[in-house]
């Protein structure tokens, strides 16, 4: 049995592609557990509108006093409710390409007997300021664990960006796959980005002033190594994207090259030559 799991709260206010996200893992999952935090905008009804018996809603009251740890706590609740041997994790602003979904299912079957393999890595495409622009500098993670063996020892880590093992929080042992995750968090309409910064003030209080500054700007900062995207988006996301393709408020600010940007260009050049990304943070250990 292959499970999927995710968490979401106020998906309509924040304009998360939660329905495409869930559908993208339903391609291959026998069940998808959705931890729905108490919302003020009809998020629970939106998830229930999928009307699929494989979708199991877990109602939860999120504790914002836990700040960043809250996301891990709620993700762990969803994991604990899963009944499969493996679980595909998807965040509310991500959509898994259908070819990758099938690939993950095949790999879990292939490597299930190899106890060294605790997780599977997916490749990431980070969209920025729209659906035809990618952020590719080493500020953005190029891969992350999104499929794991389900059990009490493997748990979400920090803000549930990745997973660790046991009381000592050992890095998860993972194997590479060619599955591709499309990350749309920074491609959402400008209104949703402003709401994101508002929520961030509570979850990440140490960056409250920065969130307020970014919220007041009204545009996204230009970044080095933004690149055009002309490929195919996941089938599950096409309607969601089409409804948001035009947003005059969603703009990237003027190009401002700074001295510290040079290292990103140098790192990118070395990566293209060698395949190695310098100073890359890894939430995992390759096996």
Could you walk me through the main structural features you see in this protein, from its secondary elements to its overall organization?
With 287 residues, this protein is of the alpha/beta class. The strands form two sheets. Strands 1, 2, 3, 4, 5, 6, 8, 9, 10, 11 and 13 form an eleven-stranded mixed beta sheet that branches. Strands 7-12 form a two-stranded antiparallel ribbon. α2 links the parallel β2 and β3. α5 runs antiparallel to α6. The radius of gyration is 19 Å and the shape is globular. The two termini are 24 Å apart.
Write the layout of secondary structure elements.
Blueprint: E1 2-8, H1 18-26, E2 31-37, H2 43-48, E3 55-60, H3 69-80, E4 86-89, E5 94-96, H4 98-111, E6 119-128, E7 133-135, E8 143-149, E9 154-157, E10 162-165, E11 170-186, H5 190-203, H6 208-217, E12 226-228, H7 238-242, H8 262-274, E13 284-286
Parallel strand pairs: 1-2, 1-4, 2-3, 6-11, 11-13
Antiparallel strand pairs: 4-8, 5-11, 6-8, 7-12, 9-10, 10-11
Helix pairs in contact: 5-6
What oligomeric arrangement do these chains adopt?
A: single chain
End-to-end separation in angstroms reads 24 Å
Helical segment count: 8
Largest sheet: 11 strands, mixed
What would you call the shape? globular
Helicity range: 25-40%
How much beta, percentage-wise?
25-35%
SSE run: EHEHEHEEHEEEEEEHHEHHE
Please report the total strand number as a whole number. Answer: 13
Kindly report the average pLDDT value: 95
The computed structural class is alpha/beta
**Which ranges are low-confidence, i.e. pLDDT below 50, for 5 or more consecutive residues?**
none
- Cα gyration radius (Å): 19 Å
């Amino acid at each position: 049995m292959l499970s999927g799991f995710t968490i979401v709260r106020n998906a309509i206010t924040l304009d998360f592609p939660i329905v495409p996200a869930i559908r993208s893992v339903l391609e291959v999952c026998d069940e998808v557990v959705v931890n729905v935090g108490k919302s003020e905008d009809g998020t629970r009804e939106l998830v229930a509108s999928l009307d699929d018996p494989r979708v199991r809603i877990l109602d939860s009251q999120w504790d914002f006093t836990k700040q960043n740890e809250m996301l891990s706590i709620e993700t762990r609740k969803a994991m604990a409710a899963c009944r499969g041997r493996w679980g595909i994790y998807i965040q509310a602003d991500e959509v898994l390409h259908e070819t990758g979904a099938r690939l993950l299912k095949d790999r879990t079957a292939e490597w299930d007997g190899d106890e060294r393999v605790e997780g599977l890595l997916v490749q990431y495409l980070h969209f920025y300021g729209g659906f035809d622009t990618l952020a590719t500098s080493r500020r953005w993670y190029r891969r992350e664990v999104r499929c794991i063996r389900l059990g009490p020892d493997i748990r979400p880590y920090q803000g549930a960006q990745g997973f660790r093992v046991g009381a000592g929080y050992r890095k998860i042992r993972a194997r590479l796959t060619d599955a591709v995750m499309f990350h749309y968090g920074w491609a959402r309409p400008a209104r949703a980005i402003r709401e994101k910064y508002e929520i961030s003030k509570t979850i990440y209080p140490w960056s409250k002033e920065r969130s307020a500054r970014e919220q007041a700007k009204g545009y996204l900062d230009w970044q080095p190594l933004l690149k055009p995207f002309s490929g195919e988006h996941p089938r599950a996301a096409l309607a969601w994207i089409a409804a948001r393709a035009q947003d005059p408020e969603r703009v990237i600010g003027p190009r401002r090259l700074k001295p510290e940007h040079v290292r990103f260009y140098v790192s990118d050049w070395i990566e293209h030559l060698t395949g190695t990304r310098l100073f890359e943070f890894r939430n995992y250990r390759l096996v």
